[in-house]
Amino acid sequence: MDTLQLLISGLANGCVYGLIALGFVLIYKATEAVNFAQGDLMMLGAFIAIGLTNAEYMGLPFLPSVILSIGIMGVIGYLLDRFVIRLMFGQSQVAVVILTIALGFVIRFVAGLIWGHEPHALENPMAGGEVRLGDLVLGMEDVAVIVVTLLLTFGLFAFFARTKLGLAMQGASQNQLAAYYMGIPVKRVQGLVWALAGAVAAIAGILFAAKGSVDPSTGLLGIKAFAAAVIGGFGSLPGALVGGLIVGVMEPFAARYIAAGYSQIAPYALLVAMLIFRPSGIFSQTRVKKV
Amino acid sequence: MRIVFKTDYMQDIRPWKDGHQLSLYLILLALVVVAPWILNDFYLGELTNVLIWAIAGLGLMILTGHTGQASLGHAAFLAMGCYANVILLEQGVPFVLAFPLAGLITGIVGALVALPAMRLHGIYLAIFTMALSILVDDIIVLTEPWSGGVSGKYVGPVSLFGLEIDRWGTPWAFYWLVLGVTVAVTLGYINLLRSPMGRSFIAVRDSEVSAQAMGVDVARTKTMSFGLSCMVTGWAGALMGLYATVFNNETFTVIISIQLLMMIVIGGLGSIHGAFLGAVVIGFLPQFLSISKEYVGMVFGGSSVAIPGLEVGVFGLILIAFILFEPMGLYGRWLKIRTWFELFPFYRKDMFKRQKSYLKTERLR
Amino acid sequence: MSDALLKVRNIESFYGPIMAIRGVSLDVHQGQIVSILGANGAGKTTLMKTISGVMDPEKGQIIFADQEIQGQEPHKIVQAGIVHVPEGREVFPLLTVDENLSLGAYTDIDRARVERHRELVFNYFPILKERRNQEAGTLSGGQQQMLAIGRGLMGNPRIMLLDEPSLGLSPLLVQEIFGILRRLNEEEGVTMLLVEQNASAALELAHHGYVMEVGRIVMDGSAEDLMKSEDIQNFYLGVQEQGVRETRRWKRKKTWR
Amino acid sequence: MSLLEFENVTLKFGGLTAVNDLSFEVEEGEVFAIVGPNGAGKSTVFNLISRFYDPYAGRIRFDGHDLLQVKPSGVAAYGVARTFQNIELFDHATVLDNLLVGRHRHRRTSLLSELFFTPSVKKQELQNRHVVEEIIDFLDLQPYRDKMIAGLPYGVRKVVEVARALATEPKLLLLDEPASGLSVEETTDMRWWIDDIRRQMGITVLMVEHDMGLVSGVSDRVLAMADGAKLALGTPAEVQSDPAVIEAYLGRAA
Amino acid sequence: EVQGVTDTEIRIGSVNDLSGIFAAVGAPATKGANLYFDKVNAAGGVHGRKITFITEDHSYQMPKAMQGFNKLLNRDKVFMFMQNLGTPMNIAGFKLMDPKGIPNVAPLSAARQMLQEPMHNKFTSFASYYDMARVGTKYLANEFGGKEACTMYLPTDFGKEVLEGTKAGAEEAGITFAAETTHKPDESDFVGSLSKLKDAGCDIVSLAVGVRQAITIVGTAKKMGLNDMKFLGTSASFLTVVAKVPGGVTEGFYAAASWQDLWARADEPAPKAFIAEYKAAYGEDPVGFSMLGYAAASMVVKALEAAGPDLTQESFIKAMETLDYTDDLVGNHIDYGPNDHQGADKVYVQVVENGNWKKLYEE
Ligand SMILES: Nc1ncnc2c1ncn2[C@@H]1O[C@H](COP(=O)(O)OP(=O)(O)OP(=O)(O)O)[C@@H](O)[C@H]1O
Ligand SMILES: Nc1ncnc2c1ncn2[C@@H]1O[C@H](COP(=O)(O)OP(=O)(O)OP(=O)(O)O)[C@@H](O)[C@H]1O
Ligand SMILES: CC(C)C[C@H](N)C(=O)O
Ligand SMILES: [Mg+2]
Ligand SMILES: [Mg+2]
């Protein structure tokens, strides 16, 4: 029973990692850039939702404000690409990584300025609700996280695999020059993906803030989600989910069964071990170059 | 424009282009040597700090800039060097020995870390090293008997050839120590780059397949690069420890790893100059912002910190500007400025306009 | 003669401080095949890239169907009907052959036509059909070249820029490629600008030819005239007295330099 | 004993047999060419020799050594150098540095002595440069000596690849389509270079090439492959007149 | 010539966290202190000297903290330090302050090392984490008959100190210490740890984790139905927001701290005046740490006044040792003496009730 409870809550938690990881993977899949500000975008999305929903700020009803914040974050994502990232078009990936890290600084600063540094929780109709299956308890928020993550993963997966635009995004990430030769508006496509990543970040942020609370440094969670994406095989959407779930499930079990002092190391130790045995993750996205 | 004619193989081999360039470097060296007489304690301390960061930057540059292996975990090796140095000192090993050994130990550990990391590429290596950096905090706590755990360690003044070196008591002596290490590391780096080993690093960075076809053992080369990189980083860590005098598990965080990488990218990947330029930005810009805040405050009134964290926000914006303005790093920009002067007045206005460039996947190895 | 479909006027292109194209002008008329000859580094590839918009010219104009297109975003130029088959294949390595072809038809919204084109490509290059689910990056060099050409055909072009299409193809396929290009030109009326090292085949196919050296056009004329020129014969067609070269490598100076 | 022995080698990629029970020998001092349709497995043969792939079956011996026992970097140490069909140079280094990497297998100094740039390192470096400059002269690369690879035209890069391979001072040189992308004039140069490489430098050459003019001009023997297996082996004239080769590879007109 | 003092100015430095993981503490504290100093300066300063309060942001990073100390000591030449944040940062700072006798007052860390030898120039405002955890644990054990004490902590100096305090408290109350779990600052799921503690039979659990994590732990425990487990935080979790979490998640959460909550006493005169003053100055509500910053500044000013016009580090330290007053704003009593450099000695155990902190006990 105990084990089952650990498993279920680990899954819910893993879905949050998976959700943030999806944002990483999206951008990577379409641009091969690693967006280190993804965690901070999630934090920003959460704060925007809080700003719209919570009584002390605007106090809008939950559902419209959720939709609105997802929209706003989509626009922010797009604008970020349009006015910052795009200036770096064709430049080395390391430079883009550094750029997004610096962006993270700025986002954290702005959020701190607007909402302060103390934790905020999102007021939401799911709060306190729970689903009971026998002895198992699962918060409403957890159920929402699991459902949304699954839907989003499969939706995005289908988008990349089945649609022309999804294919074009993959092509653009593999060879920007060739993508242009095919008439793909590479920059616009990348803008779209950033918008999408912004929206996904908002969804993750909203669920996270509903499940617990956020403060401006919440974005650091992104690091673990990033680890999850890498475990799954960076660039693979199902990989993001699987990686997230592995880390998520790992954590409660480690905390339960491994001695204090060592348990908190488990997810990172797992990551290290994982990379040693599968150097490019579970769903490997890298290939040996044919010469 | 000065045109250098090649008449001798040595012209390619020696580290300076011509006498002119050599004399410039010698003047620079003379200036930094006499710095303690020119600068007050504050600026001397900051210069020391910048040099320590530059050493760490040189360490990471070997690995990332010249071997193409991005590490987001070098703070772990700073920690390693720092602790190794202090623990050796505590065991009564004299500083002359403890310091080089600290680097050596870190280098060996780095090479060992490289063994499992060998099959990793790009982002996977970055996250692997980052995980190490995150774990080092816990490792320090768990190895409390040696590391002092959460209460940390204190390192007092050290003595070198009878000279008392104390960050606060004798800042000039400490500065010279750091300067000496900087110069030694830089010279070693220059030598490396003009030797077969350094070239094999570049070969591995640019194309592993053809490096292999030329007889370069990729695994061995990466191990060497890791080892050297960590050794130098270890020295920087040892100096950082002496600079702070107190440190514990929370001192060498993953944020510092990230800053190290930022530093060399902003400075310019793949050049020694880049490590120094980056160190100035990461090491001194925050202080500069903090100082200029006073003057801004004087002009606009109000002495208090109106917006907490403003400096970090501004710092982030400036970093963004640096990267947008010059993705190839400050050294790239410097080269352009120099060319501009050399070509004067034969330059074209848009000579350095970026031609469109396009990326290809890095998922093929 | 009627106004040209593609007009290049006084184009200059730079790589940083290096001037790679030094004022090139040329015309490609509707329905024609125009060939550009030139040694290594003459700037042929750079010219093609400048036309298709992946490089920005510093000076000059490129006029396609009466529209100035220089300096435009490359995808706009493709949408206008200029399709570039680049030097060095540039396939999408992690996508399958089929997916590569689909992206070749990115600008084409007529599904039936896309499928027709796909069949056509498979018809020309049966090996691609056989390997339609293989990742393009694992194809052999020549197979990738076939894919690059096939992908170009998928784009339903008005004019094709072909940069060394025969690179790395077997002799049999080289013949076939030139046959295919001729058929496309004659049957579908596709206009072509062709860069080829295989000069005799190129001139045989082309209506008109230009010769480039160090960033300039140094010669131009109808394909027949060029073929008769002694310089062209010597330097591009390899018609040479074997005996002279037998003893030691020896080079005749080009008369136009 | 032949210099290179390829014995019953088979290699599969999933369901695809890229090299199928292939055997051939290259004798010391000859120029040996491999021809065949696209996808016949020619480059794969090179990659097998370079040890990038492990064969499914068979043996590969070079100069009396079992190549299957060594790592990819060990192949160069025995004296085998190669070029790549799609060009694999060190893009962010100069032509000179690219060639100097070719000298790696002659490195005799230790890391420590290099860090101090001791006189022995200096002596070795002077020697390396001496060899490399000769090659630069030989292949007419002076104008590009200090240029970054990234800015060189395709044809020049092909030549730099040959130069880099020569800098290793190999016994056996593998050239994968050395003349593709070269103009007729440049191809002629390449022909004389290959000739000189064999005659003056005494290096055995194994070459994949589609330009039949070049193949018949320089090679002593030609192996024609199709679908990973041997189609014909003999003098250039014999192979060129083989009906199977004409059918699969050359076409009627050639 | 006294460092940092002229006829018209006293320079006070602070190495603080305005943008890092403890910005939630450092930023409001700095604002609170500035508010008070501005007020004093507007009224003519202390003995005719205006106070310049210079804060350097270290983002909770050691190298930056060292740069901050270098600037404040060597460039700005400050007279003293006030509310330096972070245990390792303070300890590193001591190495520079001690030789020059520079006072370090009211650091934003409640570690016992804040009063390490030489204690002469060091003054803390509050009880240590150790004492908080000790008193809190003892109280819960005695009051509710808890049997097994446990600790969930970040393996840092802060965490270890709470762990030790909890063990000491358990011993004093005569109960056993049963189990401990360790965490990372980015951990956000505690089901595993809590079920471990459940199995160990813990009924008193002290927390030494981040604010957000403390909220999540308490909430998760509720969801898991661990209603008999009493959670005890220290001053690090003693924030108004913790009491105000929507849905009553933190109802019944205990905290042991050296002061009392600001908003729970918002109707009392001193807090009320402060809230109004703060709002007027910054246009936003103060939080607990704003109050502490304000109180620290007022304490320093009291000592500066008492030290008289001939201000030296020594005279300031002497003056500090004479302070003995009740601080109505913070709700505690401050007294120092030659051998007592800890201001408030009392620990208050408080609990969240109806969205507010309520004082239950003091020792
Ligand atoms: N990325 C680059 N950076 C700098 N210079 C370049 C770059 N690409 C090409 N060049 C220079 O531009 C000139 C023209 O090159 P281009 O590739 O257009 O020649 P090409 O005629 O296509 O040659 P090839 O027949 O070998 O393909 C050459 O001198 C080359 O050195
Ligand atoms: N990594 C791989 N995975 C799957 N198939 C591969 C891989 N590498 C090569 N192949 C297949 O093996 C066959 C032989 O390829 P190879 O590159 O050796 O051909 P080639 O004879 O060099 O042809 P070309 O003349 O076109 O260069 C081709 O059909 C190719 O598609
Ligand atoms: C203000 C405190 C929460 C600071 C932190 N606990 C430290 O000791 O560093
Ligand atoms: Mg070209
Ligand atoms: Mg091939």
Write structural notes for this entry.
The complex is a heteropentamer of chains A (291), B (365), C (257), D (254) and E (363). By secondary structure, chain A is an all-alpha fold. Chain A contains eleven helices and two strands. Chain A has helices spanning 2-31, 38-53, 62-83, 93-115, 140-162, 164-174, 176-181, 186-211, 221-232, 237-257, 266-277, and strands at 130-133, 136-139. Chain B is mainly alpha-helical. Chain B has one domain: ABC transporter involved in vitamin B12 uptake, BtuC (Orthogonal Bundle), CATH 1.10.3470. Chain B contains 16 helices and four strands. In chain B, the strands form two sheets. Chain B has a two-stranded antiparallel sheet. In chain B, strands 2-3 form a two-stranded antiparallel sheet. In chain B, a hairpin with a 2-residue loop joins strand 2 (158-160) and strand 3. Chain B starts with 9 loop residues before the first helix and ends in a 22-residue tail after the last helix. By secondary structure, chain E is of the alpha/beta class. The interface between A and E is large, with 47 and 43 residues. The complex binds adenosine-5'-triphosphate (2 copies), leucine and magnesium ion (2 copies). One adenosine-5'-triphosphate sits between chains D (13, 16, 18, 36, 38-44, 85) and C (138-143, 168). Chain D: GO terms for molecular function: ATP binding; ATP hydrolysis activity.
Task: Describe the structure in brief.
With 257 residues, chain C is an alpha/beta fold.
Name a few traits of the molecule.
heteropentamer; A: 291 residues; mainly alpha; two-stranded antiparallel ribbon; 11 helices; B: 365 residues; ABC transporter involved in vitamin B12 uptake, BtuC; two-stranded antiparallel sheet; 70% helix; globular; binds adenosine-5'-triphosphate; binds leucine; binds magnesium ion; branched-chain amino acid transmembrane transporter activity (chain C); ABC_transporter-like_CS (chain C)
Can you lay out the helices and strands and say which pair or pack?
The complex is a heteropentamer of chains A (291), B (365), C (257), D (254) and E (363).
Chain A: H1 2-31, H2 38-53, H3 62-83, H4 93-115, E1 130-133, E2 136-139, H5 140-162, H6 164-174, H7 176-181, H8 186-211, H9 221-232, H10 237-257, H11 266-277
Antiparallel strand pairs in A: 1-2
Chain D: E1 4-13, E2 16-26, E3 31-35, H1 42-49, E4 57-62, E5 65-66, H2 72-78, E6 80-82, H3 95-102, H4 111-116, H5 119-138, H6 154-167, E7 172-176, H7 184-199, E8 204-208, H8 212-218, E9 221-226, E10 229-234, H9 236-241, H10 243-250
Helix pairs in contact in D: 3-6
Chain E: E1 9-16, H1 23-42, E2 50-57, H2 62-75, E3 80-82, H3 87-100, E4 104-105, E5 122-123, H4 129-144, E6 148-153, H5 157-173, E7 176-182, H6 191-199, E8 204-208, H7 211-223, E9 230-233, H8 240-244, E10 254-257, H9 269-282, H10 288-307, H11 313-322, E11 324-327, E12 332-335, E13 348-353, E14 356-362
Parallel strand pairs in E: 1-2, 1-3, 3-4, 4-5, 6-7, 6-8, 8-9, 9-10
Antiparallel strand pairs in E: 10-13, 11-12, 13-14
One magnesium ion binds at residues 44-45, 87 of chain C.
